Amino acid sequence: MYQESKVSSKTDPFQSTGRLPLSILSRRDWFAAAGLAIGTPLFHPGGARADAIPAEYREVIKKGLDWLVKNQAKDGHWEAFGGQYPVTMTALGGMALLMEGSTIREGKYRENIRRAVDFLMARCQNSGLIGNPTFAGEAGRYMYGHGFGMLFLASVYGEEEEGERRKKLEVILTKAAKFSFEAQTRREVSREGKTIVFGGWGYLSAKEGNNFDEGSVTITQVQALRAARNAGIEVPTEAVKRSVAYLDQCTNTQGGVIYSFGGGGGGEGRPALTAAAISCGFSSGDYDSPLVRKWFKFCQQHLGNLGASRTGHDEYTHYYWSQALYILGDEGYGKLFPNSDAKDRLTWSGYRKATFDYLARTQGADGSWSGGHVGPIYITAVHLAILQLDNSALPIYQR
After folding, report:
1. CA–CA gap between residue 245 and residue 233 (Å, rounded)
2. How many Cβ atoms from other residues are within 10 Å of residue 237's Cβ?
């Protein structure tokens, strides 16, 4: 089994917040521990759940969650059109239920969460991969499912009761983190006489995918590894360092994150990937670096509220952009850019009002949202995640 080398907070990007390991902590315990460990972040929320979900959106959320659980298969999974992406859809559906406040042990959706966990645990490979690369619905893009699966399982791990099941889940997550590291691409560049080693992830492992890297899969892996570290799981430190360097190398002069360093993306910055990079920077404790500032400026020029304009990747874009703006809050932009005009500042409350109103208007009578080529499970789960950020239910989405 992989044994992580011990590093200081100065060299480990995932320890920069000073958060305590969660191997023996429940979600409630985490909040108490975090209050002692974090100190005063740049964007201080004034306590957990400082912002309640506005009353006019609570029924929208309830209808969406009810639709989601009605469409969960008996074996615990969800899927996209044509049976595609069952691992990814199950993880996203499970995350939406966790964000309501239910856990694997208690709450309205505890049985649904447990069934989703059972489905994913049964499909973990000895290699550490979460998923089945031979299944037609996952082949060719199994790193997406692996990343989202690790994110979800890490989010429930702290609530799992002691015993053989918890030990099995710990082994699964430890092997999953190691698999991610071994699947990571590796590249080198020379800068000012120094060699920088960096790497992202592609749809397949680096070996099977000919070292191809791609921004959206990389973001998925970074956030999943962060959630695993939050849960007290051993995470290869080098994987984190290389991924942070990768996002830096993929940022163009305008501040946008390109599609791929290795090929296919050219120099064009992608708003969706840049928004996702901000959320990963925040979840790693990087609140005010020059890189985060560049990403924010780029996104501000290219993104509005959900529904303001169609980009072709709206659900993905705003899944991460909403996380970035939630952590930003209403005061964070002024702290990042103190010389900015007040009328130009981004705020969570402003984004929330416009976006949530749009989601309320476009929700179907049955509680779902539709559109796109992936299907209503995906869109509904993503929209529910956006709507429930104010619940502050999961450490990975904390301010």
Report:
1. 22
2. 19
Under a CB-based contact definition with an 8 Å cutoff, are residues 145 and 130 in contact?
yes
On whether the pTM is more than 0.85, the answer is yes
pLDDT reported for residue 9: 36
242-295: per-residue pLDDT in tens?
Answer: 999 999 999 999 999 999 998 755 678 999 999 999 988 876 677 778 999 999
Phi, psi of 112 (to 5 degrees): -65, -40
Q: What is the mean pLDDT of residues 186-195?
A: 88
Query: Which whole-number Å values give the CA distances from 349 to 273, 331, 332, in the listed order?
Result: 23, 10, 12
Phi and psi, residue 180, nearest 5°: -60, -45
Residue whose tokens read 């080198």: 188
User: What stretches of the chain show up as alpha helix (H) in DSSP?
Assistant: 27-37, 58-70, 86-100, 110-121, 142-157, 164-183, 215-230, 237-249, 271-283, 290-302, 314-328, 332-336, 348-362, 376-387
CA dist 48 and 388 (Å) reads 14
User: Exposure of 104 by Cβ count < 10 A (0-12 exposed, 13-18 middle, 19+ buried)?
Assistant: buried
